[in-house]
Amino acid sequence: MKALVTGATGFIGSAVVRALTMAGTNVRVLVRPHSDLRNLAGLNVERVQGDLRDRKSLRAALTGCAQLYHVAAHYTFWAAEPSIFYEVNVTGTRALLETALELGTGRIVYTSTIGAIGLPEDGRPGTEEIPVKPSQLVGDYKRSKHQAEQEVQKLARAGLPVVIVNPSAPVGERDLKPTPTGQMIVDFMKGRMWAYLDTGMNLIDVDDVATGHLRAMERGRVGERYILGNRNLTLREIFKMLSGLTGVPAPRVKLPWQAILPLAHAAHWIADHITHQPPRIPLEGVRMAKYRMHYDCSKAIRELDLPQTPAETALEKAVRWFRDHGYA
Q1: Which of 12, 52, 54, 67 is at a distance of 20 to 30 A from 235, taking alpha carbons?
Q2: Reduced to 3 states, what is the DSSP secondary structure of residue 192?
Q3: Is 2-172+203-230+294-309 a domain of CATH 3.40.50.720?
Q4: Sign of the four-CA dihedral 227, 95, 137, 181
Q5: Is the dihedral of CA 156, 117, 269, 274 positive or negative?
Q6: What is the longest distance spanned by two Cα atoms in the chain?
Q7: In the chain, what are the domain boundaries?
Q8: pLDDT band at 156 (very low <50, low <70, confident <90, very high)
Q9: How far apart are CA 67 and CA 297, in angstroms?
Q10: DSSP H stretches of helix in the chain
Q11: For the whole prediction, is pTM greater than 0.85?
């Protein structure tokens, strides 16, 4: 049996590939011509070149594959041309999954995002059944992933055998870019965190996310979505854990998100008009800080037997990897 993995060079995608190869699955990966292949080093996988915006390459990549893990996405909080979010995350996803439906691909796991899960106004953790409100879809990344998930649901109703997974904030090894959560860890290690916001997130070990993908392929119910998460933490609690792991003092100054918003707007303007590089303070991240991104992960634990590696262990793995690879 052969499985195609998109986004295989990325943080979650490469973890999925490693989990599949360890399970003995024959893996094919879709990579762009100029992809950074370091996360695939040493792995026995078949590489095919293609792009989510090239339907011909998608058909060639999917032919002969019984399974598809669609992990690829344009994942960042800023882009010089925001249209790329919709070209890749929405149109590209629709093209890939329509091709899979035409070819009769046996089983599919689609990697969505926790940002497509709604958060109750009363502060309770979000669940798979809660629709996200437009006000919670902050930025083009989340809006595009929400739209993509709607397309996936339509295809599921049309007969596509697809299961949706919604990872929370993964941490661990091989976060090359790094992701926004990984960048937060790196900034902390460099002593750049002089204050914290009264917000929170749900952390999970990236290797547990990968296992969750494989279990969703095996056990997940078609058309259902599963939150792949672990522990709900405040930002202050995360910084205390990182302080214990690194020796860097945790910030003691708490600021409301509104206090950082003008700085974030300024950083965004500079990125758009001067540097053309991602802003140092992500505007979307600050806007989302008004919510505690806490979620109920019991469905995935119950139905998929999702592993729950302690958050401290996952952070320790991330800190060690960033340190060993010269990030901090």
Answers
A1: 12
A2: coil
A3: yes
A4: positive
A5: negative
A6: 56
A7: 2-172+203-230+294-309
A8: very high
A9: 25
A10: 11-22, 55-62, 83-86, 93-103, 139-157, 180-189, 206-219, 235-246, 257-270, 283-288, 298-304, 311-324
A11: yes
